[in-house]
């Protein structure tokens, strides 16, 4: 599939290790080459009240995974890996935490109100148990050496500290079949089995896996088109088979949002209209079966 955000003419291939099940882009752009796939606009959120409310809701959901530590007595220190523009550490700082961050991108906003390491997590100068919590929200799929990140998290966490991280679920229809991954920014794709293996190798014990959409979403868009291609027609579902979204359709045809545009889109892709109507039920079923596209893991330092 191509880079759907910035370079639609550049295509990438995802493969799967037939021994451990880890998925990965192959070949992967080098660390230096990846800079072009993270332009400044990648880090720019909407400057609206609606988007601000969304962030508050998301950060509150993320903070719930740290409730156990918040209930402990004494000061609490957190390191947020891939802290982007620093919004989540600031949210936790307002709750009384001592916060630090890691952010390697030069395109992200300059952070001056708390310490930020600008080299990769496994290369930062801290190398002893210093943090009650290490968080990585949708980060580990972006890095070139995820095992090094797990290893570093285990080294810098205090005993009984928590490593909380969110990754896409390679077992999900959205990740594996529906071209929903943000390639090539997503370089690696995890199953719960690969996560367990990475944790066990580094002295971290899995506490919980929350498979769902409480923090981020990876909806199974085009699920019906996929089933029609593979189960009814007996054909593989290729990227070229993915219909345009309603927004893309309006942009291509120069249409404004409204009834007329919606009607034209329904004629173009009636399958997409049916998909959208049934999507809430499909998502709910996937969450119950733990096959949704996002999983948040909480692991404890032994």
Summarize the topology.
Layout: E1 14-16, E2 23-25, H1 49-64, H2 67-70, E3 77-81, H3 87-93, E4 98-102, E5 116-117, E6 131-137, H4 146-156, E7 157-168, H5 173-176, E8 188-189, H6 192-200, E9 204-211, H7 223-232, H8 246-253, H9 259-268, H10 270-289, E10 294-301
Parallel strand pairs: 3-4, 3-6, 4-5, 6-7
Antiparallel strand pairs: 1-2, 2-8, 7-10, 9-10
Give structural attributes.
302 residues; alpha/beta; Rossmann fold; 2 domains; seven-stranded mixed beta sheet; 10 helices
Notes on the structure:
This protein has 302 residues and is an alpha/beta fold. It has 2 domains: 14-217 and 290-301, Rossmann fold; 223-286, no CATH class. Helix content is 33%, strand content 18%. The protein has helices spanning 49-64, 67-70, 87-93, 146-156, 173-176, 192-200, 223-232, 246-253, 259-268, 270-289, and strands spanning 14-16, 23-25, 77-81, 98-102, 116-117, 131-137, 157-168, 188-189, 204-211, 294-301. The protein has a 7-stranded mixed beta sheet, with helices on both faces. Strands 1-2-8 form a 3-stranded antiparallel beta sheet, with no helix packed on it. Strand 1 (14-16) and strand 2 (23-25) form a beta hairpin. The two termini are 40 Å apart. The mean pLDDT is 96.
């Amino acid at each position: 599939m191509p880079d759907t955000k910035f370079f639609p003419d550049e295509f990438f291939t995802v493969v799967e290790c037939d021994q451990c099940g880890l998925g990965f882009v192959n070949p992967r752009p080098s660390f230096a080459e990846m800079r072009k796939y993270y332009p400044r606009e990648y880090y720019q959120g909407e400057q609206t009240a609606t988007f601000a409310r969304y962030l508050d809701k998301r950060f509150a959901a993320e903070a719930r995974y740290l409730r156990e530590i918040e209930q402990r007595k004494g000061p609490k220190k957190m390191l947020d890996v891939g802290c982007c523009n620093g919004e989540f550490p600031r949210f936790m700082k307002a709750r009384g935490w001592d916060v630090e961050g890691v952010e390697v991108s030069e395109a992200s906003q300059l952070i001056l109100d708390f310490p930020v390491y600008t080299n990769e997590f496994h290369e930062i100068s801290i190398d002893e148990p210093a943090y009650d919590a290490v968080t990585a929200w949708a980060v580990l799929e972006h890095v070139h050496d995820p095992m090094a990140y797990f290893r570093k998290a285990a080294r810098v966490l205090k005993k009984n500290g928590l490593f909380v991280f969110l990754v896409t679920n390679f077992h999900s229809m959205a990740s594996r079949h529906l071209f929903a991954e943000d390639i090539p920014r997503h370089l690696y794709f995890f199953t719960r089995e690969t996560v367990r293996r990475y944790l066990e190798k580094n002295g971290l014990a899995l506490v919980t896996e929350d498979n769902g959409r409480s923090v981020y979403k990876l909806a199974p868009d085009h699920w019906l088109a996929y089933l029609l291609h593979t189960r009814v027609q007996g054909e593989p579902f290729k990227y070229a088979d993915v219909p345009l979204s309603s927004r893309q359709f309006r942009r291509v045809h120069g249409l404004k949002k409204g009834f007329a545009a919606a009607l034209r889109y329904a004629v173009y892709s009636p399958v997409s209209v049916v998909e959208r109507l049934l999507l809430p039920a499909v998502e709910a079923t996937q969450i119950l079966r733990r096959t949704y596209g996002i999983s948040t893991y909480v692991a404890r330092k032994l």
